[in-house]
Design goal:
With 635 residues, the chain is an alpha+beta fold. Helices cover 26% and strands 28% of the residues. The strands form eleven sheets. Strands 31, 32, 33, 34, 35, 36, 37 and 38 form an eight-stranded mixed sheet that branches. Strands 16-13-17-21-20-18 form a six-stranded mixed sheet, sandwiched between helices. Strands 22-25-24-26-28 form a five-stranded mixed beta barrel. Helix 9 links the parallel strand 29 and strand 30. It is an enzyme of class 2 (transferase).
């Protein structure tokens, strides 16, 4: 079968959800099962739960002391202490002991005087029911303890047990079949060969299914063969409550999922106006929901959250859970299409009381953007995007409190930012580092707009040969600025192991394939300076326009592709097992407004920079110097 799946129409997101959920409600039935209360954490109650016992079960002493008849204590005072006799006027009780007739009050042990084996003295009268927990004070038999559709928490388990409940009716976990497809796919743990891709999506789907109250059933990978996919879907539908078919949902000649689902059932939607995630398939087979998700991990995740999760909530009876939405200032221009609702992953931090959103890589295959994201900016289908500095709605994936204690760093990339992000929570619990890599110049502009706490920078001034300070004076003429001294690092040309292209100097870039850094990056500024010294025009370099966002990304292009060389730091070359031709040493520092030096988490950042743990990691990485690290240079 060589038919292509052409998208003649894409359905708006909300319309697609409404249409599909309306159809699915006809075939989804919520099943119940009984489980021991001790095993019910996280489960959804299928019906209201009522107590069968009171708590406490009897009138109980709330204190250690003696139980008395309140009337017998009348007249007691400091001037006229009253003596009570054991067995006649009182009995000793501990907290939780029953209090029975003729006693109806408790006097705390601390309020007793002249205690011996047979008598005590009291200096104040007590009223009936003093320090007594009456029967049913907490729980009354027959009262509702939990409503239906309630997710059971640890505190709920304690109340259920206290109310005499040992088993509870909960909604059954739906079984969700997961079918990974693709001839090029291999299971995790297997060494990938040429053109092979590790199936990471199935593991993510299985975890999401468990998180949302289901039981995953992952099938072996199915190659791109119509009949084999057909058979796999038939089996999965028979064995499960709903099915996810991963990959093969797009417009390729070997994308068979939609053809299989049309053969076996009804395809309600193929193609939704969502980015990433357009080629989602919403179908029904044998009265069960079957959803085809695209293969790119970000697309797959966004579609799972948007379309699979609501169906699972129908099965479990769980109330829909939405991420809180807050207003943030976007640090970079976001351009979007009127054709889609776009989900842009962002890093978040709070600067001068404003929530700042820094967009991450937007590609559908950029799975790490999901890991690094603190939230998502949703650009509506009727919007062309947002300008830098504009206020945008952001769904929070982390708590606002955690975001409030996050250092916002926007600027140049270096591996030490990862070291610091890992160390900070250990050295200063609760403090986090959010690092967005846009290049030195773009970082300084973000700092100028008040969108970052610090801006890592390594910009060489050609006239003076000095790093960073000249740029701060030019860009911030009216502000009190400073540099937190960072590391010195060795820059050079990263080349393949063994240097097969025999690259020795900048001039050799004229005869090889090069990978550059993004505009505004300090490494690119350095390259341009070196090219100018050699009299080489940028357009003479093959690959000058090929941009990598980080040193490690540039090193990976040299390691794994047809690129012969890229400018980068020694530590990146070492990490990727590349050869390295040193060009020179540069200074990688942190620009900051002086007023922010007093912020507690900035002081934590400086302590982390100067810590022995950080120095040890830098030594291990290689190519760095730490003399003067953490010193403050007023600019």
């Amino acid at each position: 079968m060589e038919k292509r799946n052409l998208y003649l129409h894409t359905t708006p997101v909300d319309e697609a959800k409404e249409l599909y959920n309306k159809e699915i409600k006809k075939c989804v039935s919520v099943r119940k099962e009984e489980v021991p209360v001790q095993d019910s954490l996280g489960r959804i109650t299928a019906e209201a739960v009522h107590a069968v016992l009171c708590s406490p079960l009897f009138n109980a002493s709330a204190m250690d002391g003696i139980m008395v008849n309140a009337a017998r204590t009348a007249g007691a005072s400091e001037e006229h202490p009253l003596t009570l006799k054991r067995g006649k006027d009182f009995k000793v009780v501990d907290t939780g002991d029953p209090v029975r007739e003729p006693y109806n009050a408790v006097i705390m042990a601390e309020d007793l005087l002249g205690v011996d084996e047979d008598t005590v003295q009291i200096i104040a009268a007590v009223s009936p029911w003093s320090h007594i927990r009456p029967i049913g004070e907490d729980i009354v038999a027959g009262e509702m303890l939990l409503p239906g559709h309630h997710r059971i928490r640890p505190v709920d388990i304690g109340v259920l047990l206290g109310g005499g409940i040992c088993h509870v009716q909960v909604t059954a976990r739906p079984r969700v079949g997961i079918i990974p497809t693709g001839t090029e796919m291999i299971p995790p743990g297997q060494e990938p060969g040429e053109g092979q891709i590790i199936d990471s999506n199935s593991g993510m789907f299985a975890a999401l299914v468990q998180q949302y109250g289901g039981v995953p059933d992952v099938s072996p990978i199915v190659e791109d063969d119509y009949e084999k996919i057909l058979a796999a879907v038939r089996r999965a539908v028979a064995d499960n409550d709903m099915v996810i078919v991963n990959a093969g949902s797009s417009a390729g000649t070997e994308d068979y999922t939609v053809h299989v689902l049309r053969k076996l059932g009804t395809v309600l939607i193929h193609g939704v106006a969502i980015k990433p995630g357009k080629p989602v398939i919403l179908a029904v087979v044998d009265n069960k929901p079957v959803i085809g998700l695209p293969g790119y991990p970000v697309s797959a995740y966004i579609d799972f959250e948007t379309f699979v999760k609501p169906v699972m909530e129908l099965f479990t009876g769980a109330a829909p859970e939405d991420h809180p939405v807050e207003e943030a200032v976007v640090s970079r221009r976001l351009v979007s299409s009127l054709k889609h609702r776009e989900y842009v992953r962002v890093k978040l931090g709070e600067v001068d009381g404003r929530l700042i959103a820094s967009p991450l890589v937007r590609g559908a295959a950029a799975a790490t953007s999901l890991v690094r994201a603190d939230g998502v900016c949703v650009i509506g289908q009727n919007l062309e995007g947002y300008e830098a500095g504009e206020k945008v709605p952001v769904e929070l994936w982390r708590s606002r409190e955690e975001i409030r204690h996050t250092i916002v760093s926007i600027g140049s990339h270096d591996m030490i930012m990862d070291f610091l992000a890992d160390l900070l929570p250990d050295l200063s619990p609760g403090v986090h580092l959010s690092s967005t890599h846009v290049g030195s110049m773009a970082g300084l502009m973000a700092l100028k707009r008040g969108e970052a706490h610090i801006a890592p920078t390594h910009l060489l001034d050609e006239e003076t040969g000095v790093y960073n300070t000249a740029y701060l004076r030019r860009i911030f003429p009216d502000r009190e600025m400073a540099l937190i001294k960072g590391v010195t690092r060795i820059q050079g040309l990263m080349v393949k192991k063994g240097n097969p292209a025999d690259i020795r100097s900048i001039r050799d870039l004229l005869r090889c394939r090069y990978a550059n850094r993004q505009r505004g990056a300090g490494t690119r500024v350095l390259l341009d300076h070196l090219l100018k010294k050699e009299g080489i025009r940028p357009e003479q370099i093959d690959g000058y326009e090929l941009e990598a966002a980080t040193h490690m990304a540039a090193a990976a292009l040299v390691k794994e592709s047809g690129v012969d060389a890229a400018m980068g730091i020694y530590a990146a070359a070492k990490a990727m097992d590349l050869d390295f031709i040193e060009v020179g040493e540069e200074e990688y520092d942190f620009a900051i407004e002086r007023k922010n030096l007093a912020l507690p988490f900035i002081r934590d950042f400086i302590r982390a920079l100067q810590s022995e743990q950080f120095r040890a990691r830098v030594r291990e990485a290689g190519g760095y110097g730490t003399e003067g690290i953490g010193e403050i240079i007023r600019v």
